[in-house]
Amino acid sequence: MSGFSAEWLALRAPADASARSIDLARRFAAALRPGDSLADLGAGTGSLLRWISPLLPKGVRWTLVDGDAQLLSRAPRARKLRRPLGGRLPQADAFVSTALIDLASPAWIARLVRHARGRPLLMQLAVDGRHVLEPPDRRDGAILAAFAAHQQRVKGLGPAAGGTAPFVFARLAARAGYRVRTAESDWRTTDPALVAATIEGIASAAKQQRPGLAVDDWLALRLRQAAMRQLTLVVGHRDVLAVPRKRRPT
């Protein structure tokens, strides 16, 4: 997996918390039983645990799985498993993730669905390919297209699904017999730090994807707008819930 810094995860955490679907989280919680084991794949610093724990049944036992020991050290107290997600996946009664499946290949997503064997899955904040900058600029289309292509490079779990990930996951889960629900979980922000960091990431990826693309003037303009809170950024995400059609026996 491509690594993410603790600073970036902290910067995006408020936008993530605002965007996550409460409705799907509650439906996920309703599919759990007290004492169930729950694996958070690519858990990072544990932001999903902090957000969703008040909604869950009592006694849920967490396993936070990530390949980065430093990130896990900043997570709340729980069982922590430092393990690359390209290897053996943990056993659990349910699985969750944040901003993960868009970094994985369709083959890895299919592997996850098979591994779950009918147990509940909640995949939150998977990008769905939509990026909107307000006000628009004539250069947005070419730069965002290059960025979208870059999102489908290998990120550590095979050629990444990128913006197709939530739809790939939903289709595979439905084919495996799950009841599937989706909800938009978009960022919509004018926060100068988050917008600037995101725009810089878009520009860097676009230049890597298309080295001849003129990005620098566009980036300078967008950063000035962000600093003055004159730029609104919308990043399209989707949460996807897959629950078994029949409740597990007690």
Keywords:
alpha/beta, single chain, Rossmann fold, 250 residues
Mean pLDDT: 96
| Uncertain parts | none
Number of strands: 8
CATH 4th-level superfamily = Vaccinia Virus protein VP39
Just give the CATH class. Alpha Beta
First CA to last CA: what distance? Answer: 37 Å
Shape: globular
* CATH architecture type: 3-Layer(aba) Sandwich
What string gives the helices and strands in order?
Answer: HHEHEHEEHEHHEEHHE
Round the Cα radius of gyration to an integer and report it: 18 Å
Largest sheet: 8 strands, mixed
Structural class of the secondary elements?
Answer: alpha/beta
CATH topology: Rossmann fold
SSE diagram, text form:
Elements: H1 6-19, H2 22-30, E1 37-41, H3 47-52, E2 61-66, H4 69-73, E3 79-82, E4 94-98, H5 106-116, E5 121-134, H6 140-150, H7 165-175, E6 178-184, E7 187-189, H8 192-209, H9 216-227, E8 232-244
Helix pairs in contact: 5-7, 6-8, 8-9
In short:
This protein has 250 residues and is α/β, with parallel strands linked by helices.
Could you characterize the architecture of this molecule?
The protein is α/β, with parallel strands linked by helices. The protein has one domain: Vaccinia Virus protein VP39 (Rossmann fold, 3-Layer(aba) Sandwich), CATH 3.40.50.150. 39% of the residues lie in helices and 23% in strands. Strands 1, 2, 3, 4, 5, 6, 7 and 8 form an eight-stranded mixed beta sheet that branches. α6 crosses α8 and α8 runs antiparallel to α9.
